[in-house]
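tokens incoming
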């Protein structure tokens, strides 16, 4: 995930509406990056960063596609400046991927058996009462059918 930094271009109109929320998410991201990972498994140290990355991208997606509160120009600016993940948003627009937590969960090369991640399996197909966590991001289920 790239660091968010402003370019030299002036932000488009409407930036002042979303800037406080994005600044708050950036502050939380810095805290998560600097947080101690003592006593955690190696993969658990990255889980808060993945969650905040998802939250920031979902915020931009929701205000543009669902609430239609920002312009296309501002949306493109946010993608260009790294405030949201364009590839993740592109997957959210496809059927079956509306709740996708991260792009690593759908890549078969990152799993033991060459399939998608366990969090992509609908909860109806799993054992009752068994809690499953994704190894990559800590997600407990992002399948659209669950």
């Amino acid at each position: 995930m790239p660091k968010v930094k402003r370019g030299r271009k002036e932000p488009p109109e409407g930036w002042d509406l979303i800037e406080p929320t994005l600044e708050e998410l950036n502050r939380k991201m810095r805290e998560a990056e600097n947080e101690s990972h003592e006593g955690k498994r190696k993969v658990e140290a990255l889980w808060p960063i993945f969650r905040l990355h998802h939250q920031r991208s979902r915020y931009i997606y929701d205000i543009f596609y669902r609430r239609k509160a920002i312009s296309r120009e501002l949306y493109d600016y946010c993608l260009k400046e790294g405030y949201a993940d364009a590839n993740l948003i592109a997957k959210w627009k496809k059927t079956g991927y509306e709740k996708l937590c991260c792009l690593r969960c759908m890549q078969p090369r990152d799993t033991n058996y060459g399939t998608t991640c366990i969090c992509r399996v609908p909860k109806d197909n799993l054992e009752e009462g068994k809690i499953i966590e994704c190894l990559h991001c800590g997600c407990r289920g992002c399948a659209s059918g669950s």
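note: Residues 96-146 form one domain.
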